[in-house]
Amino acid sequence: MSFAGSRPEGALWVSPTQRRALRMMLAEMSIHRLEVTLAPSKRDPDSGSKIRVVMDKNADWYQRMCADYPSTRKRMNRAADTAIKREHTVTALEKVIKTGWAIGFYQQTVLNYISGFVKDQEAQKTAHKKAAKERRLEKLRNKRKEQR
C-alpha cells in the first residue's frame, strides 16, 4: 500500500524515529505475551488444588493501552477486560511501520504509547548502566581488599 507521497485523508505521518520505536514495540509484543499456568497450591499441596501462576506478561506499554480502553461488556466476575485486541494491535503496528502513515483507530492509538515506551527503554538502559557500574565498583573494592 503505497501512497506515492500523497497524504491519505485523516492519516498521521510517522517519522523515521517513531517507526524505529514502533519496530521495537512490535518486537516486544512478539517476545512477551500473557502466559498463565496452573501450579500446585502451596497451602494444601496434597489436595491436588491448583493456583494460577503468571509465567510471562504482556509488554508494559501494551498493558497500559489495554487498561486505557476497558471493555463495555458486563462480566460476572471482576476480571480485567479490554476493548483492545492483540491481533489488531500487531496488524496496526505492521501497517504503520510499512507505510509510514497512521490511519484509523488502532494505528493512531499506538502512536500515543511511543513516548512512554521510549521513556521506559531509557529508564531500563539507565538502570542497566547503573547496575553495571555498581558491579565494576564492587569488583574493584574486592580486588583492593585482596591486595591488602
Structure description:
The chain has 148 residues and is mainly alpha-helical. It has a domain at 12-113. The protein contains five helices and four strands, in the order βαββααβαα. The strands form two sheets. Strands 1-4 form a two-stranded antiparallel ribbon. The chain has a two-stranded antiparallel sheet with strand order 2-3. α1 (16-31) runs antiparallel to α3. The termini are far apart. The mean pLDDT is 88.
| Oligomer description | single chain
Structural class: mainly alpha
Which term fits the overall shape?
Answer: flat
Helix content: 40-55%
Approximately how much beta-strand content do the residues carry? Answer: 5-15%
Quick recap:
By secondary structure, the protein is mainly α.
Topology, please?
Blueprint: E1 12-13, H1 16-31, E2 35-40, E3 50-56, H2 60-68, H3 86-99, E4 101-102, H4 105-111, H5 114-147
Antiparallel strand pairs: 1-4, 2-3
How would you describe this structure in keywords?
single chain; 148 residues; mainly alpha; two-stranded antiparallel sheet; two-stranded antiparallel ribbon; 11% strand
